[in-house]
Amino acid sequence: MANQKLKKLTPVQQQYQKFAQAHEPARPLLRNLTMAFLVGGTICFIGQLIQMAFIRYFGFNERTAGNPTVAILICITAILTGLGVFDKIARIAGAGTAIPVTGFANSMVSAALDARSEGLVLGVASSMFKLAGSVVVSGVVAAFFIGLIRTLVAMGG
Amino acid sequence: MLQGHQSWVFPSRPAILSTAVIGGPFEAHGPLADDFDLLHGDLRLGQKSWEQSEKMLLDETCAKAIEKAGLTKDDMTFFLSGDLMNQIISSSFAARTLAVPYLGLFGACSTSMEGLALAALLVDKQCAKYALAATVSHNAAAEKQYRYPTEYGAQKPPTAQWTVTAGGAAIVTASDNQQDPLVVTSATIGRVVDMGLKDPFNMGAAMAPAAFDTIVSHFRDLEIPYDYYDLILTGDLAQIGHDILIDLFDQHRIEIPADRYSDAGLMIYGKHPDTWAGASGAGCSAAVAYGHIVRRLRSGDLQRVLIVATGALLSPTSYQQQESIPCIAHAVSIERTGGTKR
Amino acid sequence: MYRARGLHRTNGGNEALILLWAFVVGGLICVIGQFLMDVFKMTPANTVSLMVIAGAVLGGLNLYQPLVRFAGAGATVPITSFGNALVQGAIAEGQTHGLVGVITGIFELTSAGISAAIVFAFLAAVFFRPKG
User: Fold this and answer.
1) Are A126 and A119 in contact (CB under 8 A)?
2) pLDDT at residue B100, as a whole number
3) pLDDT (tens digit, 9 = 90+) per residue, A50-102?
């Protein structure tokens, strides 16, 4: 089928799509939003506790405690993913696990795990960023343009 | 023999000599568990990768079908097989194990009936003595290739389907010396139908029109009434596609009695919440047809069935390029000889 | 990956309060993500990318840092913080080294998170098998 820019649907197709849409069960929106709030909030709560522990017991200050906190959360995610538990939590939590850094870590660990059968270099190493790459690239490109604008403004003003 | 526009009838009545169905741990918890020849407790089947597990599953299924027929692999004339993996690699490796002349097929989840139709045609035309038609799917291998890594925490919508881990195989031969054989009486080869749907997490809605097209063509080509079959079984439309198909029948005033239509994707797991809308996968239609349905035919519970395996012919790349999902459905009718109940 | 800049705490150092806000703000950011996924039918990858960009934009407008001071981990743990940290790094280097600094400074504040993710993902693949 030719990939035209304006891929128009025939009337029959349009009619069928409306028909099919009517058969789609509604997503449990309220439940999903609630679980996302509770699980996401809990993960951030735990992160806050870890951060406070690093400040109090390990001599970090507020500026530097963020780094080991994130590293700990990533490590926990890696273990839970490896044990096959994370995806079960994520299924209920949805964005509650996907939006915190746990989601980023899970995307890398799960891709690495599956690719293990293809070897450590060609498999694990190459595939690790399969899902997470989009996040890194989006962030870096956005930061470049925003940083550029800010710097130009600062230079001009 | 060609009948009508796109159907074959088989006057020599090729028969299904034996079938084999092997499943994984999740299928063992389903309502049809007793209709499997073997159920594995380990999803990995003791192999190092998911792909190798799928290959092993197909190997075992073919070996079991041959064993149940009381034959050896050297007796097989042709091996027709396909699966969901890139380059249908599982089937190629199984063909290597069998060392039987091999015809690789790709029909996504419609492969089972594509294979059975061709096997029956070869036997009917005396082009094969024993034709082995098989297919397989593996949940983790399919997820890894088509969707997300198996341990990825993605929340799937209620229209999503669970890929079955199962292999199904059937050996077709001339019915001469068999007692009350199950005969393949006709087949309808489907056309690709694409209604512009793009969501790979709602394949049931994409495939329903293809199933409708093939079923209607079948009845039109063969000029038989809509209540001719005791059961019309679609492969993996699951809840969404099943409901849509029933509505399509109503819309077009095709009166297929409600208790005569069912879907394998709904039967294999029952109402399990983890499977969202139901089951899918090349092994789904094969496992239910070659296990549960064949048993009911042999016992006389069913006399005539039409199995309509449905497939969504998308690739991971086509989806990313915003293409819609072309779908297809192949239908094969199986009838019981040896006294009708009606 | 994310640094809480400035030693000024809006909550006046009340630990219970910042724990509460960490929970609430973190939860709300996740709710926004869930909304994007369920109502706008966005894929997880697109949703997370959009939120990173949102964090970058808010960081560029100097709106994310106050949120960090207020909600602590509720702002630094979500992936939006990644976008903010990238922008803060770019801006800081841009101030000292001009336009070249915009590129060279991007990863300065986020290297901990990326390194940790790579190392732990690798180790997990060595020690674990996927369960399906």
Assistant:
1) no
2) 97
3) 999 999 999 888 878 888 999 999 999 999 999 999 999 999 999 999 999 99
Rg of chain B's alpha carbons, rounded to an integer? 18
Q: Write out chain C residues lying below 8 Å of A39, CB-based.
A: 30
Name residues whose C-beta falls within 8 Å of residue B254's C-beta, 6 or more positions apart in sequence: B216, B219, B226
H/E stretch holding C27: helix C15-38
Q: Is the CB of C44 inside 8 Å of chain B's CB atoms?
A: yes
Which amino acid does the sequence have at A99?
I
Cβ neighbours, 10 Å, residue B258: 9
Q: Do A45 and C22 touch (CB under 8 A)?
A: yes
The nearest alpha carbon in chain B to A29 belongs to B157
Residue C53 CA to residue C35 CA, distance in Å, equals 17
User: CB–CB of B195 and A131 under 8 A?
Assistant: no
Cα–Cα dist A136/A143, whole Å? 10
Size of interface B-C (CB pairs under 8 A): 19
Give the ipTM of the model, two decimals please.
0.88
Length of chain A: 157
Whole-Å CA distances, B135 to A99, B18, B131, C29, C38: 39, 15, 13, 45, 35
Q: What is the mean pLDDT of each run of 10 residues along chain B (342 residues)?
A: 96 95 95 96 93 96 97 97 96 97 97 98 97 97 92 92 96 86 96 94 95 97 95 95 95 92 95 89 96 95 96 90 94 84 42
- What chain B holds in terms of domains, given with CATH numbers, is 2-174 (3.40.47.40), 182-336 (3.40.47.40)
Query: Residue B44: which of B143, B126, B165 has the closest Cα?
Result: B165
Contact indicator for B175, B126 with CB cutoff of 8 Å? no
The tokens for B242 are 């099943």
Q: Which helix (H) or strand (E) holds A113?
A: helix A101-114
How far apart CA B168 and CA B109 sit, in angstroms, is 12
Interchain proximity C131–B154, CB inside 8 Å: no
Rounded Cα–Cα distance for residues B53 and B47 (Å): 6
Q: Could you report the per-residue pLDDT of B128-179, keeping only the tens digit for each?
A: 999 999 999 999 999 999 999 999 999 999 999 999 999 999 999 998 877 7
Say yes or no for a CB contact (<8 Å) between B151 and A109: yes
User: pTM above 0.80?
Assistant: yes
CA distance C130 to chain B (A): 6
**Contacting residues for C35 by C-beta, under 8 A, at least 6 apart:** A33
What b/e readout covers A76-90, taking b as 16+ CB neighbours within 10 angstroms? Answer: bbbbbbbebebbebb
Q: Which residues contact B201 (CB under 8 A, 6 or more apart)?
A: B156, B157, B159, B160
Written as one letter, the residue type at B196 is G
Which residues numbered 40-69 in B keep a CB inside 8 Å of some CB on C?
Answer: 43-44, 50
Q: Helix, strand, or coil here: C105?
A: coil
